[in-house]
Structures are given as C-alpha cells and as structure tokens.
Amino acid sequence: MRLYLLALNPTDSVTEGFLPAAARLGLDVTVLTDRPEAHRGTHPDIEVLECDVRDHRAVITRISTHHRPDAVFTNSDHLQTQAALAAAYFDLPGKDWRAALRTKDKAEMRRRLAAAGVDTVWSTELTEPVAPAGAPYPCVLKPREGVASEDVVLVDGPDDLVVQAKEILARRPGAVLVVEEYLPGELYTLETLGDGRLRHVLGGFHTELSPPPFFVEERLTFVPEHPEPVLTQVLAQLDALGVGFGACHTEFVVHAGRARIIEVNYRAIGDQCDLLLARLLEIPLFEHILRTHLGEPLPADLGARRDGAARLEYPYAQRAGTLLEAPSAAELTVDGVDLTYRPLRGVGERHDFYGTNRDYLGVLRAIGTDQPTVERVSAGFLAERRWEIQP
Questions:
Q1: CATH T-level assignment (fold) for domain 186-390
Q2: Orientation angle between helical segments 106-116 and 97-104, nearest 10 degrees
Q3: Domain spans of the chain, in order of start
Q4: Assigned CATH for 2-92
Q5: How many alpha carbons fall within 13 Å on the CB side of residue 332?
Q6: 3-state class of 309 per DSSP?
Q7: I need a labelling partner for 69 at 20 to 30 A (CA). Which of 92, 101, 139, 143 fits?
Q8: Could you give the residue ranges of the DSSP H alpha helices within 48-79?
Q9: What confidence tens digit (pLDDT) does each residue in 115-141 have?
Q10: Whole-prediction pTM
C-alpha cells in the first residue's frame, strides 16, 4: 500500500513519528514536498518527489503520474486542504476539505462558529495597516492563515495596531491579517482522534505563555481529562466546524466556566508534544492516525494508559544573538521521572529574536506518574543547565 505524505520542511512529527509508523505498518511512502533536498538529507531511504504541494492541482497531477495512491496524508497546518482535496479526488478516506479550510482560515472559523450559534468573537480582516473602527482594545493581531504564534501580537490601541500591522505586512507581503477580540482565561489544548464515525479524546495540556505582547508557549502540563462542561463546549464548536477525522489539536481558553476556541490545528499537536503523548498514553498514536487515512476504523477502546503525568518545557531565547553554550541531548530517569532533552538550536548559530517558538533553544519532555514530582524534576534539570547567548 502506498502512502503519499505532503510536507514542507522536515519536522520531528514526520521524522520521528509518522515515517517510523508507516514503516511499522509496511507502507510504501512517497514524500511530496517543495523542499526535496531537505527531506532527502533527513530521511535518505524514503522516496522524495518535488512538488508544489501548496497547489492541490499539482499534487493531484504528481500522484496521477506516479503510483496509485492508497492514502494521501499530511501533518502540516498549511497543507490540510490540499491533502483533503487530493484524497477526495482519488476517492480515498480523508478530511472534509471544507472543514480543513475553516480551521486554517481563522477569519472563516470565526464566521462559521458565529453562524452556528456556538460562539461569537469580534473579528475583522485587514489587507493594509489601518485601525478598524470598533476594535475592542486590547485586541489580538495575527495572520489569517498563520501558525505557531508567528506574528501574533497583543495591541493596546489604534496606533500600536497600525505599527504592528505595518511590520507584519512588510514580512508577509500580500498577507491578510485578522484583528480579533482578546479572549481572557487560562489556555488549554484538546487532543482528539477520530475516524469520521468515532471520536476519541486523548486528553490535553495546560499551556503557560510568555508575558504579552507575544504568545510564546513556555511550558505545557498534561491534563488527563477536562471538566465535562468544558469538554462539551469545545466539542460542540469542533462539530460546528465539521472536525472529526484523523488527529486534531485545538487551543482554547476557559474563563468563568466558558470555553472559547482560540484556534484549531487540524493535525497532531507538534513541538514534540505528539511524541510525548504517544509514550505517555502507551498507544501507537502515529499508526492510529495513518490507519484512519487508510480507511481503517479506530478501535472502540484505544487502551490508553490513564495514570500518567507529564510536562514539556521550552527554554527559549529572549533576545537576538549567537548561542555560545547549551546542553547536549540527554535521556535519563530521576526519581521515577523519564526525562528526554533535545536541543533545537546548535551552538554557534546566530538568530534574530522572533517572539515565537522559533526562539526555542530546546525541548524537555518529562513523564512520570506524580505531577508534583514531574514538575520538581523538570525544574531541577533546567536549573542545572546553562544557555548563553551573546548579542
């Protein structure tokens, strides 16, 4: 059976998650990408074909002139609609392309939720740096089809909005921006997996952010179960968007008992959270996701472990400069807590300051059975390491 995997740049989710899972399932894999050399260097044993993967017509043509597909899949935020359209063209299982578009387009997501009567958020679109009438300050400015807090900023007034919009549009010529009401509350995620018939809730995370005006995710703590009223509200919003096939990572805030979606990433959670989730729950998560795209139903019970505790920490740069000193990769067990540290930036590299997860220097994954112990051991590990950046 042949799996076509659409990708932009190589990611840990694909390299350490989906490609090994595809090998375990005995699938023949063809990677379609606009960055073939990067993928050939990362996984040289996999067939890689160059393709304009942002264009669904190019994807369909590339597949049609190659081997017959059994599944078309992507874990990229930017390529969900293209993969869904290609899967539909070849009569293969996949996501509804309309749901993929609604979740990717943040303005359309707001319109859809409002039309369904499940949540209404003040929101408007911008194509030039002007302050829209009636904007409720402070408010959030972000790209309509952005990802990973890239160019997402809290603005406190019209002048600030215009300045920030000019800077973002200079970096993203032709982009459409969204200005929307700031939603207060604690930030959480919901991780789901469905086959179009059955939907499993895998749990979620409580996310701690950097101080405003940016929204860098500093750490995530595993939440085995959200309160039932909160879960009901979030699932109702996902239903209104048509989400229910494959993996989905939803970010939402809870304030005074009300759950409101911030954004929906119609894919598995990234930044190594998916790797942690598979290990924490002790399930073949990546295989399950691929099987749904092969048309296989999910089991009624995934057999997930439910007594685990976990935390992810992201040490990150808070200024531009060259990384002079940083810890190397490590795996160890301390007081029953399994720690995995992976550097994300090499010593000697110079980077600008982005105010996003591109500032991450590394990621620490910690898994145990007692949350206070997990947090204590994680804090101790980070306190004993040093990251030095020279301007």
A1: D-amino Acid Aminotransferase; Chain A, domain 1 (3.30.470)
A2: 110
A3: 2-92, 122-181, 186-390
A4: 3.40.50.20
A5: 10
A6: strand
A7: 101
A8: 56-64
A9: 999 999 999 999 999 999 999 999 999
A10: 0.96
